[in-house]
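haha ok so turns out i had the wrong file open the whole time. this is the CORRECT one, sorry everyone. sequence first:
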Amino acid sequence: MTCDTALGHRDPQTEGIRLQKPYLALSQGESRITRSYDPAHWFSCYLNQAIETLGVRKFVFPTLPYEIWVFSTNLAYASLEHPEPKQAMKVLFRKRQGDQDVETLRAANLLIETLTLSPMSEKLLSQVLQRENFKLPMSLKSFMDWDVAVLPVLYKADVKALETATYPWL
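then structure:
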């Protein structure tokens, strides 16, 4: 596998290949039927894991021009589209202040960690944050000087509902 494949990218920190989970599909056993999930589910899982592993809630990425603050990891929400309550996480994001680079931001705030995704996955994360922000009512789109996104969290009970869903952006 090369560094520029869509399946994975070389991670300089671990000197290994990281799979880009938003671009993978799953199948069970010998079945050829595959199932994929909305990238928002993968990113909420990735951010939850980073919080548990690193013990912080603010993150930056090497090429993504945002600071990300996972404000709440366990929300329940309902909407006209989904009247049954769904689990989600609230993610605040904003452009890096003064176009600061990652190292300058980290030096100014020790509670910010750098996370690693491929440039393609960082771009997808940016698109997901913008998309999820767009779905919110105008009064909920921002908090102070942060934009807000509500990312769905995948639980086992949700898998049945997602089995028949299709996601053309994957």
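The radius of gyration is 17 Å.
again sry for the mixup
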